[in-house]
Protein 1
Amino acid sequence: VGGRGGTDIISTVEFNHTGELLATGDKGGRVVIFQREPESKNTPHSQGEYDVYSTFQSHEPEFDYLKSLEIEEKINKIKWLPQQNAAHSLLSTNDKTIKLWKITERDKRPEGYNLKDEEGKLKDLSTVTSLQVPVLKPMDLMVEVSPRRVFANGHTYHINSISVNSDCETYMSADDLRINLWHLAITDRSFNIVDIKPANMEDLTEVITASEFHPHHCNLFVYSSSKGSLRLCDMRAAALCDKHSKLFEEPEDPSNRSFFSEIISSVSDVKFSHSGRYMLTRDYLTVKVWDLNMEARPIETYQVHDYLRSKLCSLYENDCIFDKFECAWNGSDSVIMTGAYNNFFRMFDRNTKRDVTLEASRESSKPRAVLKPRRVCAGGKRRRDDISVDSLDFTKKILHTAWHPAENIIAIAATNNLYIFQDKVSSEMH
Amino acid sequence: MEFKLEAHRIVSISLGKIYNSRVQRGGIKLHKNLLVSLVLRSARQVYLSDPCPGLYLAGPSGTPMALPQLPGEPAAGPAAGWGEPAPPAVPAAWQETQPHPERSAVPDAQRAVDAEPAAPGIDAGDAVLGGQAAAGPAWRLMEGPREAAAGGPGNPAGASEVFPEVARAASHHCGRPPGGEDQPGALGATPRGDCCCAKEEAPAPPPIGPRKRGAAGAGGVGGPAGCPAPSSTPLKKPRRDLEEPSSGAAAEEEEEMETGNVANLISIFGSSFSGLLRKSPGGGREEADGEENGPEAAEPGQICCDKPVLRDMNPWSTAIVAF
């Protein structure tokens, strides 16, 4: 469904902790939540499909009159809170404001009021001759979403990440230069825990690009920079975490130096593994796996689309080089996934070292269709179904992907379309 | 030679990006502009260090200009940036180039309102093409009108005033109009008393000055919204784009602009971003939220959706296309 000026371009995708719910945010400030249907005998072919569960407008465009700045309503990130009762909660953020939403279901309603009739109008008291106790009767399921907290005015720069702490009480939000720690129940203040703004902005050389709390250790978090480095910080070591506990950085390969070396080394996403032992980073051409115990270099590096290395100047010209791709782990941390161009996305099996390129397109999405591996040919021998580098469509980019926390279900956002694949990973590898 | 052309091209593209970033929705993206400025710096270094004979590049007015020879030009380190001491004298062709007449007509009504920094990199770009001489003094020249505009909102007449100043300033070695200090809103109205050139050991006059200053001077007071830049390459865009940040930042700007550093781009973006330039105290940086606006009131109830009926859609088992 086309939108007005691309407001339905998906800007973030996130499964909740059980994988039952999948939230997407878009450029128009809307959040759409999908719920997985329980498998049932009645619909044997729909093995737990995802249907729309709720849609709501999370953020609206705003105007900062003081700075004459329009604040985009685009949802940059959504993060689910661990479920603690019947309700689901999530955090959604645009460039400036984070909001906590509570999603509840209502499937019963009280009937049999004494003073009101069915439509809610007050009854004529003279007609009331006896009293009854209202009873709860089932009704069509209604999903209600309400904003519970609004965390505003915490950021001068553009928020790029939010991450909920494993303590389930706090979360952090990061912008280009600062990271703030919030308590989920307190909206009028936050603690600044990282500030890399130089005293003299002229000395600015790097910005924060992503950040995440450790999945198990509530005192640890990591943030990535535009220079390609990762900093692991310990909140117990100091109140202000400007000084990192560990710095993960790979020395630059001098033979690959170009005008654009700095741009392509900027880390666009960082994700802890489920185990908490590793980190996954994405820069423009590669994904890298880092071991928390080794700061000197990543333990694994995978080329996503190295054939673009010779095209960096054109990609700079058309702004593609600034695209921020995300990356994802599968539930067992054995496979990593990231998006690319031409609606391609890539998966790398860490154990077998095999990789596959798949395409998210309507043709490949017929019911029960098995995704066919694709190949990009960068010169040399060309096979029949290969795509040449020059015919790649750079407007079709897969920036946002998510992997179900336990099963092999992936959600792929291709511009304004969402694809959910139940992928049999092992059989697809080359 | 190839590198030089490539570098030049990259510089042009980069400046275009910085310029366009001003009008992008959501404000200037600090990250992207930082990266662009790094590319700009790399390209400039390559450009300046490539020992090729000067290129002839046609300017917007069609006047071919000879670029200065830059032999033995000390490569600017990352910290030093663009504001290096002037290179050897530049051919006189630069001096005679007139600033574009159309620039003076651009209104700068929006200037005071628009807090967004514009394209200071354009100055840098000019500097690349025209050698470094203009970089330093040209930057400083910017400060005059910029500060004047900062002091008083909207100086619509300033734009046209600047040009006469610019033309006259050609002969002055630092480009300041020979006696125009008191002209409100004009080039010379820099609060700093001493000649800006004294700060930099620039021995030679910046003959590139006039053309640059034309761009620069006009830029100093113009409003970004009205930039026509009809036939010009991004490099030639008027310096009116060099936007005036909020007054709190202007003070910070002053010294920063001096070096003509590429990082000046950052300072402009940065100060424009921060607006109020809140300086964090040394201790716990607990930021009180309610300083200006109280916490946003909870918004009225959002859309409650009945479970929508999508069951008439083909239940694809492998893919769901939403939206």
Protein 2
Amino acid sequence: MAALSEEVLLVVKRVRQRKQDGTLYLMTERIAWGPEGKDRFTVSHLYADIRCQKISPDGKSKIQLQLVLHTGESTTFHFANESTALKDRDAAKDLLQQLLPKFKKKANKQLEEKNKMLQEDPVLFQLYKDLVVSQVISAEEFWASRLKLSSVEHSLSNNSKQEVGISAAFLADIRPQTDGCNGLKYNLTSDIIESIFKTYPAVKQKYAENVPHNLTEKEFWTRFFQSHYFHRDRINTGQQDIFSECAKQDEKGLKSMVVQGVKNPMVDLLSLEDKTLDEGYGSLTVGPNSSKTVKENSNSAIIKRFNHHSAMVLAAGLRKVILVYWKFNKFYPELNLLFMNRDAPSDQASETSSTDGNSRDSDFFQPPIKKVKLQEAIEYEDLQNGSGPKTIALNLKKSDRYSHGPVPLQSHHYSTSQDIINSVSCIQEEISCYKPCLTRVMPSSAASSAITALSPGGLLMQAGTQQAVSQLVPTDVQSELKHLYTAAGELLRHFWSCFPVNTPFLEEKVVKMRSNLERFQSTKLRPFQEKIQREYLSTNLTSHLDEMIQAAYNKFHAWQTRRMARKT
Amino acid sequence: MASEDEVSLLVIVVDVNPIWWGQQAQREPEFNLSKCLDAVMVMANSHLVMTRTNKLAIIASHCQESHFLYPNKHWKAGDVAGDEVSSGSGDGKYELLSVANDLVAEEIRNLMARTQVKGHQTDTLLAGSLAKALCYIHRVSKELEAGQDMKSRILVSSWFPFSSAVYFCIIFVQMSMGIFGLIIYYILQVVKAAEDCALQYMNFMNVIFAAQKQNILIDACVLDSDSGLLQQACDITGGLYLKIPQKTALAQYLLWVFLPDADQRSQLVLPPSVHVDYRAACFCHRNLIEIGYVCSVCLSIFCNFSPICTTCETAFKIPLPQMMKPKKKKLKTAN
């Protein structure tokens, strides 16, 4: 019998498979079927191997369940128990539905990774086609070295994924739709709910308290949207509303934020005042203590709410950062000193502690922000008497060596001073009676021989007739050659990485790689060479490939003889 | 058809070192400085005639100075009419050409007349002439009207004599003005006469890189022996290098190869570029080497290893190869 240590989750009797009666067993990691009367399982599939399950449609007389594996095979089970067939089948199907997703991820992930890699990199895909599809090396060898690299990269990239922030307009995006008759329909997605919870922790608290004990989720949100807390004017908060407390809390938070102020001494918010135009276009500053009308009050209430909302959105994003810093500080107090001297973390800290009046984290993190900011503003790094890294002066003894060009010292032909005087006087004579005679500059014979020399094929044009190899060889031959190079390079890399051969695994691999190289040469390289020979192209195209493979053969031969010599 | 806004400036640097040309005149009387200047003038005239907006400058590279043969400081293009100087040509030639030719002839006569023999100054000041050409190009580009485009090149015509350095540089700078803003291509054609002079190497290389930065082409027309420096110059700036087998047909070569500007050259079949030898010379023997040792402190190149760099006197420690320890272990176990 199969390993009884496996826990059996479901047993279904009278299940036929391939016209044989038997029993179906569903265990923790696999599904198995054994024929009636026998002790062993004839059919056993791991959940990881199953791609999907199918059931026969409801109207059919035969009640069947089909399992399709990743490899494409399928197994069909026919539930033959007259009375309970449908129930059995459904029970089996439900259990499978629960179990399959757990195992699916593990198996598919690797396959998905491989597929992704092949899709992303066309060179890799070509290599795969050349080597694995044509059976030069097996798929496991191909993936052996590659999957390790990719898994490391993946984990790194996953960890460094950034958190998505909260859009400031998330509440406005809800966009109620009229329901026909005086009702409003709000569409809430889980993203929006998450944003609301992150921004307004008071609402989250209320949610945790009330749902699901007192209110259903739907009721909670209905009340939320109905409450004046959500709407513009919060003046009538007399009603008994679960959200009236939230409103009070928000007011408190806003007040504490204002009290804390901004810690940056360079920013003075209090000096901002409203200036309106007075008679005659002078400016009139509105004093802070003037009485406000009702309308102005509601305006200021809206502005207050806007400010509060923006502050909460910002705080929500930074709260996580602050928590990390707080934890860090608790366990590594010396790091606090580091943060005090740096600009970025202290900035965030000050802003968070001042923007989120409700957060308790601000108490734990109060570096001397003011001093740092002031220092920043008055000091410029590059204007200070910087003591840069200590340098050593270059001490050149013979610096005139640099001024000589790459001209080998040749013996100059020295002329005597008499020669010089003679030449100069000669030339002076000649030029003193110089008159340009442009009609007789050169004899026509000289001109025509010059033209001949300059024409294609002439004396001076010899070097130009050589064409680059890339122009002589057609592009499809070139691309095939490139593929060959990539494939050969891959094989040779596997081969050469086996040396020095220390372990028996490497020995086997070396032998296998040698046979792979031979196979590559015979299946890929030779036909290519014959092809280019037929097309009268120069056969030097593949000489380098041949050399590389020959070098590998030589090395293998040398290693083999040495091994034989050692054994005997 | 080039639009009105395309200006092409050609600067020709002609090496007129009298010592060398004098010796050459004694050796090969059929090709002397006069003939060379005639060929250059043909080239200059052709360039001016190609497009109305083409501009020209000719610099004579002497062993004592670099002198502008054309244009003259005191001469403006508008002063043509009524000048006695221009009455020389009665053949109905385009006045600009006749004026230019006469000007060049006069200037070269004056230049040679005031040459004084000084024994120690025998090298042509090629780097200086090239620098002057670059400055001239820069100045002209600033004087362009808004919306004008300038392409320029320098043609250097050079010899390679057996004796002391005589540089014969013709720098052609072509300016072409286009509608799409100021793009200046300069082509320096260097007609080189002499050996590469070691003293001017640094200046020469600086000029080459400056030209490259300014998108100025340097073409070289070498009359006698190959010059590595000019080959490098042409390679770096994108110009043409040509060593002429027949000196008497200089004009033909100039017209065929160096007259078209950079845009047109891609459409023509011209002599292919030579393989440039960029090998460095070692500091100890000045041999050209392919593999050498470089001091990591002062970047001086040596052909042999030495534990102390002779330029900056830094001592280097080379780690010795490790002893073969496994063999010792085997001996121990055997015992």
